[in-house]
Amino acid sequence: MDIRSPNDSDLPALLALEEASFRSDRISRRSFRRWLRHRDCVFRIAVDDTKDSTLLGYALVTLRRGTRLARLYSLAVDSAARGRGIAQALLQSVEQAAREAGAIYMRLEVAENNLGAISLYEKLGYSQFGLYEDYYEDHASALRMEKRIRPYQPSGDNRQLPWLPQTTAFTCGPAALMMAMAGLPGGHYQPSPEEEIELWREATTVFMTSGHGGCHPLGLALAGQRRGFRAEVWVNIEGPLFLDGVRDENKKRVMRIAHDSFVRQCGAAGIEVNYSDIDQDELTRRFSAGANILILISTYRMDSMKAPHWVTLSGFDDTCLYVHDPDMGDTSPRALREAPRNPLDCQHLPITRDSFAAMSRFGSSRLRAVVVLESLS
């Protein structure tokens, strides 16, 4: 058996193996072609080097840019070749390649009735950390399993925080705020699509460089406090925010008016605004004390777009900070066919502390903004 990267000549055999291995949720010809050229994946095949390089199996792993997370997207072994340790060899090969690409965690989903695969994953060190109901096209549920492919000594508080996707391209702030509020004690807060838009209306800066306005940290804090939570803001710039790249002077005028209004409202509401950086030690201390935290990042390391984006802190350890990202990426029909992003790809994303320090600054002004939310009970 030889394990190597596939090429275009392997496509017919890959399609035949896919057809024979899965009754639903199959990878299409177009998707296989895309994965053969995609830079953010690890793709390995096992071939029989004694039988004209007959395809025995494949493993495909996706890598989430800007994070240290890898995900086993698909694994298949020819039924005639099972029992030879091919799945284990493939999995160990892609783990090594993912590790070399910088990944710290490997995650996967497996049908809860696939006892053979579950046994293999457990043997190789994977453990269940959740259940995804009605996951497959046939409505079967999937176990969520995870393995740290780089050893560590854990520390910190990795609490259970609900994950919510943003339903528009411009409501990352409201989605992050809804996650934070729904994850605090009390259980009285109920997110909804209507609430997402209402939060955006309350917190928007009105304009951004293009498209709809994003959300101001003071606006998000005000929206959270109006809903019965204690809010606090850390921002390292005292003047109007998000003016970088806005050329229209009338847009700048309106954004300054909105900013000044948020400042006055926070003063009237008694919301503490700290005009300074908040370091990672303080972030993790506040998180451990029970607060949920919204953090503004630049998406450049994730998608090269240099857009401001709100995420919610979901945990930490000595190496990484973990975030819930509300952005499901491009959800157009074509994008979903060619490279669907799974909700699991957006939850508890591990970002190394040095990378996080760079990501949590936006624009030429190096804006840093954090909203700390606490329960009043």
Automatic annotation (TrEMBL):
Q: Give any GO molecular function from the UniProt entry.
A: acyltransferase activity, transferring groups other than amino-acyl groups
Q: Which Gene3D superfamilies match?
A: 3.40.630.30, Cysteine proteinases
Q: Which residues form a coiled coil?
A: none
Task: Please provide an example of a Pfam family that matches this protein in its UniProt record.
Answer: DUF3335
Checking CDD domains in the record gives:
NAT_SF
| Alphabetized InterPro entries for the sequence | Acyl_CoA_acyltransferase, Bact_Acetyltransf, DUF3335, GNAT_dom
Reading the lineage from the top rank, the first entry is Bacteria
Q: Where is the N-acetyltransferase domain?
A: 1-150
**What's in the keyword line of the UniProt record?**
Acyltransferase, Transferase
What name appears for this protein in its UniProt entry?
A: GNAT family N-acetyltransferase
Which species expresses this protein natively? Answer: Parahaliea aestuarii
* Organism lineage string: Bacteria, Pseudomonadati, Pseudomonadota, Gammaproteobacteria, Cellvibrionales
